[in-house]
Amino acid sequence: MKDHPPQKHRHARSVFTLLEVMIAFALFAIGITSVVAMSVQASRIGQSARNRMEALHVARAELEEIKRARFDDPILEVGNHAVVRGGFSGQVLVSDRDPGFTKEVVVRLQYPSFHHAAHVELEGVISRALH
Q1: Is residue 2 part of a domain?
Q2: What residues have CB less than 8 Å from 88, skipping those under 6 apart?
Q3: Could you give the CA distance from residue 70 to residue 77 in angstroms, rounded to a whole number?
Q4: How do beta strands 102-112 and 88-98 pair?
Q5: Going by DSSP bridges, is the β-strand pair 117-127/102-112 parallel, antiparallel, or unpaired?
Q6: Residue 121 structural domain
């Protein structure tokens, strides 16, 4: 006659198997949560990079437009000028580098970033001799 293990022992083994399954599921859930979190972070970083590139493009276009202006155009008056262009806002800073002959222009635009407001800044020098 064969001896069968006691019923109690089988029950203990099946509980242990259930515990193993629960631990495996918990580890799987932690892994999936980590992957999702990294994916969300990568998406935010990508969007921030796209916003930065667009802001640079808009700032470059603004600076080129200013460079085409006459030397005595109001946009080249010394001081700060607000600018809103292409969905971005910022300012144009104009200063005399060599009064009456050259001016320094800084275009600074803010763009949305995933963790803070950020900005791009482009500089140029405009000479009366070139106009």
Answers
A1: no
A2: 54, 55, 58, 59, 109, 110, 111
A3: 11
A4: antiparallel
A5: antiparallel
A6: 7-130
- Give domain status of residue 53, yes or no: yes
DSSP letter for each residue of 58-71: HHHHHHHHHHHS-T
Per the CB < 8 A criterion, the answer to whether 107 and 90 are in contact is yes
Query: Would 1 be classed as within a structural domain?
Result: no
Q: Which of these, 65, 59, 64, 69, lies nearest to 108 by C-alpha position? A: 59
Number of domains in the chain: 1
Residue 50: predicted pLDDT: 92
SS3 of residue 122 by DSSP:
strand
The mean per-residue pLDDT over the stretch 29-34 comes to 96
Does a structural domain hold residue 15? yes
What's the pLDDT tens digit per position in 89-122? 999 999 998 888 999 999 999 998 877 889 999 9
3-state SS, residue 97 = strand
> On the CB side of 51, how many CA atoms lie within 13 Å of its CA?
20
The tens digit of pLDDT for each residue in 49-85 reads: 999 999 999 999 999 999 998 988 998 999 999 999 8
